[in-house]
Write a structure and sequence with these properties.
By secondary structure, the chain is an alpha+beta fold. The chain has three domains: 202 residues, FAD/NAD(P)-binding domain (3-Layer(bba) Sandwich), CATH 3.50.50.60; 52 residues, no CATH class; 135 residues, D-Amino Acid Oxidase, Chain A, domain 2, CATH 3.30.9. It has ten helices and 20 strands. The strands form three sheets. Strands 5, 6, 7, 13, 14, 15, 16, 17 and 18 form a nine-stranded mixed β-sheet that branches. Strands 1, 2, 9, 10, 11, 12, 19 and 20 form an eight-stranded mixed β-sheet that branches. Strands 3-8-4 form a three-stranded antiparallel β-sheet. α1 runs parallel beside α5 and α1 packs across α10. The structure holds flavin-adenine dinucleotide (FAD). Flavin-adenine dinucleotide binds next to α1 and β18.
Length: 401
């Protein structure tokens, strides 16, 4: 690796860095491109710790990046999986209204989805809902038949393969620790050596703000980690869930509420919640990092966020430590489910960008500097949208670099 020279170096070997790399290699084959990943393997953070849902694009504000990239991304992803023999299943999803007070929001979601171009959405009554999900209680539901499931780690691995076959270089175990600029070039220092690049693309996920700051960028956000914890349904209870079962989301909060997902490996998961993590890659409750937390406390946006969301936040922590409360929320959707149906599960940590005014950035945020592009906010449905986001970044790079 010593002192190699590249046209573009991409920092971060998650699904977005790898999609971008693959698409740059296909569309700009004259450029020499490398990916630097700090872990020994690719896609071990958000890409390897998510719900594995191929979203259809219902929730997002029409015209937003999320709406555009998710709808286009799902279509492209289905084609990509077919071409590359990656297993997926379009098992369908229901968003379920339990109470009259949720019907207005469900109707709004139906209109949003239709405006975003999500095909074949259907508002269904209790009888049709029972045919789709026999064990779910609800007075009405929004049915999205094309929502699906896939293993995003496999998708990311296929992007990496295609990139390497096209001549791209991937270096793992190579955290970028320092970035130095000189005219026409940036030097990226890693423990394995230094890469020189004309331009860089930052897909650093949970560390995207730090990577951007290393380039001298005045970063308008801070990444605050939110852990999502899951339970797993015991195999004998899998029959309770046919596809994907979601509540009507709380419009005050950017997360979707605890739900049931059948995943492509054959498990059924319940979750995730959304609790403030005390470490950026804090997958366990006890994980703590002093500098991550001091950084949060020194960031004015953190306090403003805390002031705005303290009630919801405390509720999430309470539910995280009380299986009974978690179960009660799950029983709203699936009354038959009992404590004995739930076993411990895994977790993931979301990289949520928080603005200086304390607001949680809702849309994807991709900003462009002189010789760099930074992905500063790419929460769910980032994995579903990965081909569309990578294409967008490749467009920006081809136009600017
Ligand atoms: C709990 C949870 C559930 C989700 N569910 C879904 C879902 O069902 N469907 C969906 O579409 N999306 C979902 N998402 C969102 C989706 O996982 C993300 O949008 C997507 O994985 C983002 O990919 P990424 O490449 O930006 O990030 P990551 O996968 O986190 O990759 C970033 C990479 O950068 C590397 N890195 C960081 N700093 C450095 C450095 N200094 N040097 C070198 N490398 C560095 C990291 O090690 C990491 O591998 C979910 C996310 C979570 C956390």
């Amino acid at each position: 690796m010593e002192s190699s020279q590249y046209d573009i170096v991409i920092i971060g070997g998650g699904i977005l860095g790898l999609s971008t790399a693959m698409q740059l290699a296909a569309r700009a084959p004259h450029w020499k491109v490398a990916v630097l990943e700090k872990e020994d393997e690719l896609a071990t953070h958000q890409t390897g710790h998510n719900s594995g849902v191929m979203h259809s694009g219902i929730y997002y504000r029409p015209g937003s990046h999320k709406a555009r990239f998710c709808v286009a991304g799902l279509n492209n992803l289905v084609d990509f999986c077919n071409e590359n023999e990656i297993e997926y299943e379009q098992c369908g999803k229901v968003i379920v209204a339990i109470e009259e007070s949720e019907l207005g929001r469900l109707k709004d979601l139906h209109e949003r989805g239709a405006a975003n171009g999500v095909p074949d959405l259907e508002l269904v009554g209790p009888e049709r809902l029972k045919e789709i999900e026999p064990h779910v209680a609800g007075i009405q539901a929004l049915y999205a038949p094309h929502t699906g499931i896939v293993d995003f780690t496999k998708v990311a691995a296929a992007y990496a393969n295609r990139f390497q076959q096209a001549g791209g270089d991937i270096f793992t175990g190579a955290p970028v620790q320092k970035i130095t600029r000189s005219t026409g070039s940036v030097a990226l220092e890693t423990p394995k050596g230094t890469l020189q690049a004309k331009n860089l693309i930052n897909c650093g996920g949970l560390h995207a703000d730090r990577v951007a700051a290393m380039t001298g960028e005045d970063v308008p956000i801070r990444i605050i980690p939110f852990r999502g914890e899951y339970y797993t349904l015991r195999p004998e209870s899998h029959h309770l869930v046919s596809g994907l079962i979601y509540p009507v989301p709380d419009p005050q909060f950017p997360f979707l509420g605890v739900h049931f997902t059948r995943n492509i490996k054959g498990h059924v998961e319940a979750g995730p919640n959304a609790v403030l993590a005390l470490r950026r890659e804090g997958y366990r409750k006890r994980d703590f990092n002093l500098s991550d937390n001091l950084g949060n406390l020194a960031y004015p946006g953190f306090w403003k966020m805390a002031l705005k969301y303290w009630k919801i936040g405390l509720g999430e922590v309470y539910r995280s430590y009380n299986k009974r409360v978690f179960l009660r929320d799950l029983q709203r959707l699936l009354p038959e489910i009992q404590d004995s149906d739930l076993a411990g599960g895994g977790s993931g940590v979301r990289a949520q960008a928080v603005a200086k005014d304390g607001s949680l950035l809702d849309d994807f945020s991709i900003i462009q500097g002189n010789d760099a592009i930074h992905v500063l906010n790419a929460p769910s449905p980032g994995a579903t949208s990965s081909l569309a986001i990578g294409e967008h970044i490749a467009d920006l790079a081809i136009a600017a670099f």
